[in-house]
Design goal:
about 425 residues; eight-stranded parallel beta barrel; 17 helices; 11 strands; about 45% helix
Length: about 425
């Protein structure tokens, strides 16, 4: 039985058998991946993708590519679409965003020779997606969404996939996913949250809803949402029956999530400084579009020591090249006591960039505790909206106070470093 297709279910129950066979042929052709790196704007660039592949990722997506800009702006295309030429970064899916079938098709034709599939973004919940009429907001226009899948499936030479979020009704989600399958999608990635579950209102991912979709479809389904540890990976696969699981933000901080921070070759434990070093080594081979991409990754990889070393944070911000960045990383590595220690008994959620986003249940003694959400994902209990807003305001105020303190420190350091003036 194929992973993601329950035993005993006849292929093609709701879809033409040849279409289902083609979908699974495609899945096998890319190695039947189980661990997937998500599409992330300005984050899933080639260097990061290649790093994660060395640590357990078996399928990766490009950053979201705006279809109209891909077609109209060669500079944008060169900046955002970065396929690695030597085959190290495969299998690879290019994700496109847009609402015009002709534009999406033109963009797909520009990238199809460099990737294994083209994906349509029906998952972005941000305000910019509403303004641009793409992402999860197209789920409110199901006829259009299905027509886009059909247009690309019929017009491209590579398989077409889609990444979706849940609709408010699980039955409606199942029905729409079935329609996308019928329109020619070779695989679907399902994020177990609605578009309204975003940022501080995210809540736990609904793995039970994903399981309903997996059961209803005949094509591979990738489960997304609530994947923070290697245990989550195994549990999500078991509870949903999905063909694979995808991680996004947690993978940004811990690219070794899928291998539980154990080097697949040497068996050594991989801490945050070592992951940062490995990322920088890949950057030497595959330079990211800007140094800003590098900084953004390092701010997540080294979140804890950077919080405790504001002057080194300033040095990282002021760096203008990888040559400037590498010594800062080594100085931060010396602060080894400030680490989240993923996948060890010493795990410290308070030291983690990703876990600070997750709403924590605080026990009577003030310790951070994890509880399980309704969907089965290992996510802490939700707090009220008022509490979340208050916490966000407090974080903002802390950042402002820290910024003022760093300015005072820099001013004092400048005065101390100034040469003494002789008084005649």
């Amino acid at each position: 039985t194929e992973p993601g297709r329950p035993a005993g279910r006849p292929a093609g129950r709701t879809t033409r058998p040849v279409m289902v066979a083609s979908a699974w042929d495609f899945w096998r052709s890319i190695g039947s991946p189980r661990h997937v790196c998500a599409p992330m704007v300005d984050q899933s660039e080639a260097a990061f993708r290649v790093l994660t592949r060395s640590l357990g990722v078996q399928l990766a997506y490009t950053p979201m590519l705006h279809a109209r800009l891909m077609v109209e702006a060669p500079a944008y295309r060169a900046h955002t679409f970065d396929p690695e030429p030597d085959g190290v970064d495969r299998p690879l899916v290019a994700q496109l965003a847009g609402h015009d079938a002709s534009v999406l098709l033109a963009a797909g034709r520009l990238v199809q020779s460099h990737v294994d599939a083209v994906d349509i973004n029906f998952g972005c919940p941000q305000g910019i997606a509403r303004k641009g009429r793409y992402g999860a907001f197209l789920l409110d226009e199901p006829e259009l969404a299905v027509s886009l899948v059909r247009a690309l499936a019929e017009g491209l030479d590579v398989p077409v996939t889609a990444k979706v979020r849940l609709l408010p009704s699980v039955d409606a989600s199942v029905a729409l996913c079935r329609r996308m399958q019928e329109a020619g999608a070779s695989a679907l990635c399902v994020h177990g949250r609605t578009k309204e579950q975003n940022k501080h209102r995210s809540g736990p991912a609904d793995w039970a809803a994903i399981a309903r979709i997996v059961e209803a479809l005949d094509i591979p389904v990738i489960a997304n949402g609530g994947i923070a540890t290697a245990d989550d990976v195994a549990e999500c696969l078991a509870r949903t029956g999905a063909a694979a699981v995808m991680s996004s933000e947690a993978l940004l901080e811990n690219p070794a999530l899928f291998c539980a921070n154990v080097d697949p070759d040497s068996g050594a434990y991989l801490d945050q400084p070592e992951l940062a070093r490995r990322y920088l080594r890949v950057c030497r081979q595959l330079p990211p579009p800007t140094l800003g991409h590098v900084r953004s990754h390092l701010f997540k990889l080294l979140h804890a020591p950077l919080r405790h070393q504001p002057l080194l944070r300033e040095d990282l911000l002021e760096a203008t090249s990888l040559d400037d960045v590498e010594p800062v990383v080594e100085r931060l590595a010396a602060c080894s006591h400030h680490q989240p220690a993923f996948h060890t008994p010493r795990f410290d959620a308070a030291a983690s960039w990703y876990w600070r986003h997750r709403t924590a249940a605080v026990s009577a003694d003030g310790e951070l505790g994890e509880t399980r959400g309704a969907g089965g994902a290992s996510s802490p209990e939700s707090r009220s909206r008022a509490e979340l807003e208050a916490a966000a305001l407090e974080r903002r105020d802390r950042r402002r106070r820290e910024k003022k303190r760093r300015r005072r420190q820099r001013g004092a350091a400048s005065v101390a470093a100034a040469p003494a003036v002789a008084v005649l």
